[in-house]
Specification:
With 377 residues, the protein is of the alpha+beta class. The protein has two domains: 244 residues, DD-peptidase/beta-lactamase superfamily (Beta-lactamase), CATH 3.40.710.10; 112 residues, no CATH class. Helices cover 29% and strands 18% of the residues. It has 14 helices and twelve strands. An eight-stranded antiparallel β-sheet has the order 2-1-12-11-10-9-8-7, with helices on both faces. Strand 8 and strand 9 form a beta hairpin. Helix 1 packs across helix 8. It is globular and about 55 Å long. Belongs to the peptidase S12 family. InterPro entries: AmpC-like, Beta-lactam-related, Beta-lactam/transpept-like.
């Protein structure tokens, strides 16, 4: 499949409940293609940017803050999913008066503030703009829908929420995640730091097509977007919405924890309260009211998670797309199965989907569907 798609590299992890192996979780890995333009091969420990699959880390950081009774006692009031932003952040404000006053944490997590993406406001993080400055700038951005009227994907809301650990605990978002998630799960390859990822020697180059002929469908050679589209030191603005750099091996631990309802897959210690894991996967807004194929169902959006079904099997997942990289992290909670697909090819979104479905059909014993052909250009 990698060859037919003229793609650069893939790392895949599959996690299944298996009582015959130590710990009860079977983790399998496969890697294909090149990680760097010098031909270095992809391995399960190659570090990829997972883009918007970082959003669940942000959601869990909020959930942990909500669950932190010490924080509640210290500030005299309870933080909740329905806490209004104007009560937490002095910089907060939107052009729409109702949205400015009423927007709460859940509205931001489920993309229903009325504010569209305004993707160039973040300047891809390359300007090094700080989070408070970004929050203050949102007062100047026009809404394109009524408050809570529709789903509009917006990275700025997640970036704004990454400021909560600073305000409420005087700790940076990145160190908060390291302390509460990366560290306890021993996700040793995972970081928000470009410098640290590059220093490991395992950070993949992202690739993109040089040219694509719309008329003939011919795809040209690939060029590396090297070393990374962000410059070291400018990661902070993108951290909450899409800043995690990680490996397939680390993500296999992450999805094992998710399948284990927030508990460490080996020790059974609670990493994220089960109610927080469930909250993230509870649909709030309608992402897609019509399914794109008969095997799929309409999609709901919770908090950094999409929820739908495939051939009768419930799915909780998210995709990730950032210059030079794609990711797909999918779990089937009722089947104790999770699939992670990481790519260093910006054009590999449908390839990652095809790989996911092929593995799904095989493991769940479903009649195979040729998704590769369906998705091919």
């Amino acid at each position: 499949m990698l060859t037919s798609w003229n793609s650069s590299g893939l790392a895949v992890a599959v996690v299944r409940r298996d009582p015959t192996v130590p710990g009860g979780w079977r983790r399998e890995y496969a890697s294909y293609g090149i990680a760097k333009d010098d031909g270095t091969p992809v391995t399960p420990d190659t570090i990829f940017a997972i883009a918007s699959n970082s959003k669940l880390f942000l959601t869990f950081s909020v959930g942990l803050l909500i669950s932190n009774e010490t924080l509640v006692n210290g500030h005299g009031k309870k933080l909740d999913w329905t806490t209004k932003m104007q009560d937490i952040l002095p910089e907060w404000g939107l052009m729409d008066e109702t949205a400015s006053k009423e927007t709460n944490i859940q509205d931001m997590l489920s993309h229903r503030t009325g504010l569209p993406g305004h993707i160039y406001t973040l300047t891809n993080g390359s300007s090094g703009t700080g989070i408070p400055e970004m929050i203050a700038s949102m007062k100047t951005l026009r809404p394109s829908a009524q408050f809570r009227d529709t789903f509009q994907y917006n990275n700025m809301m997640y970036c704004t929420l990454s400021y909560l650990p600073v305000v409420l605990t005087n700790q940076s978002y990145e160190s908060y995640i390291a302390q509460h998630l990366f560290g306890p799960l021993n996700m040793s390859s995972s970081t928000y730091s470009i410098k640290d990822a590059e220093a490991s020697g395992r950070f993949a180059h992202g690739f993109e097509l040089n040219t694509y002929n719309i008329s003939t469908g011919a795809r040209s050679s690939r060029a590396a977007v090297a070393p990374y589209y962000l410059r070291s030191g400018h990661e902070k603005a993108a951290a909450g919405g899409g800043g995690v750099l990680t490996s397939a091996r680390d993500m296999s631990i992450w999805v094992s924890m998710l399948l284990n309802n927030g508990r460490h897959p080996d020790t059974n210690e609670t990493i994220v309260p089960e109610e927080v894991v469930n909250h993230a996967a509870t649909g709030v807004t309608v992402d897609s009211a019509m399914a794109s194929y008969p095997e799929l169902a309409p999609t709901l959006y919770g908090s950094g998670q999409r929820i739908y079904s495939y051939r009768g099997h419930e799915i909780i997942e998210h995709g990730g797309s950032i210059m030079g990289f794609k990711s797909q992290v999918t779990r089937y909670p009722n089947d104790n199965l999770a699939i992670v697909v990481l790519s260093n090819d910006f054009n590999a979104g449908l390839l990652a989907e095809a790989v996911k479905w092929r593995i799904t059909d095989e493991i769940l014993g479903l009649s195979p569907i040729d998704w590769d052909t369906r998705y091919s250009w």
